[in-house]
Amino acid sequence: MSAMPHTIDAPAVRRYGAPALSADLQAFAADVRHDLARVPKRLNPKYLYDDLGSALFGAICHLPWYRITRAEKSLLVQHRAAIAASAGPRVRVIELGCGTGEKLQVMADAFVSCGNRTEVHLVDVSRLALDQTVNALAGTRLPVVCHRMTYEEGVARAALGRTDEAMLVLFLGSNIGNFDPPAALDLLQRIRAPLVPGDRVLLGVDLVKPDAELRLAYDDPLGVTAAFNKNLLVRMNRELDADFDLTAFQHLAVWNAAQSRVEMHLLSTRRQTATIYAADTVAAFDAGETIWTESSYKYETGQIGKMAALTGLEISEMWINADARFALALMTVA
Fold it and tell me: How do beta strands 41-42 and 290-297 pair?
């Protein structure tokens, strides 16, 4: 891969008469312009999750090679009564990155059985994910509030106006693994900030496992993960008036053992350029050069305890699915 920067600032590439961008698209364009100028090129993984990206990720969760969702659901089914009971009689449940609502459906019965007065707050940047979860919870009769915003913003918003309710934050699906260790620590500190002693955080964490197993999970034989990754190019073409040639990029998943992370990249198969008109940018690629789109960090159990302690949290319980190497940690605000 070339180590030379290949992004050319080109203010003149903006199409004449192009419509004004919304605030969200302006932020998207600014991030693309900044991140494609980095070495190596990269894109913020949050942009993987438009409506199509969210749907594709939902499909990934059902693949036999991606075991995180099934392992976590199994642990939730086994321990949901204890989790619900720990929250107390009045609780605001905040799920960060709600997906399709399947996990909250599992937990909802436990809250009802415990007799908790429960209010559910959903936090996600994807409107589709919020809509799907609201529909999934329709039969539970639990009051639901949606926050289409970032995780830390959503927790702060959900905490407003609380009286005697405890808060239980669900951060599942090993979403913490999408952040490098310093960013993960910073995010947990921001999530913990509006919480008070006695509140709880339920954290799902994928653990280190054999290289071959990780490769199959992130580069499945059906090509669903590849479609999820390449959809980021589709999104830029559609929303930012870009002209990426999808046939000239391949999905690449790499296990970086030294950093304990799976890296997803989009690899350029030839020397080429792509113009992102709304970002006033032309990006040039050598053959073999990549765009780094996502990282998924894997943890050892001891690291989870250290991370909790550094954020003012204490692990009350940790349950592990030994077969799939997945952990569910119930943490209490100290």
Answer: parallel
d(CA 119, CA 102): 17
pTM, rounded to two decimals: 0.86
Q: Tens digits of per-residue pLDDT, 181-217?
A: 999 999 999 999 999 999 999 999 999 999 999 999 9
- Residue 43: other Cβ atoms inside 10 A: 23
DSSP secondary structure string for all residues of 11-26? GGGSPTTPPPPPHHHH
- How many beta carbons lie within 10 A of that of residue 153, not counting itself? 13
Query: Residue ranges per domain, the chain?
Result: 7-39+224-297, 68-209+299-333
Burial of 22 (0-12, 13-18, 19+ CB in 10 A): exposed
User: Who contacts 270 (Cβ-Cβ below 8 Å, separation ≥6)?
Assistant: 248, 287
- As to burial, measured by CB atoms within 10 angstroms (0-12 exposed, 13-18 middle, 19+ buried), residue 185 is middle
Q: Which CATH superfamily is domain 68-209+299-333 in?
A: Vaccinia Virus protein VP39 (3.40.50.150)
- Give the helix/strand (H/E) hosting 177: none
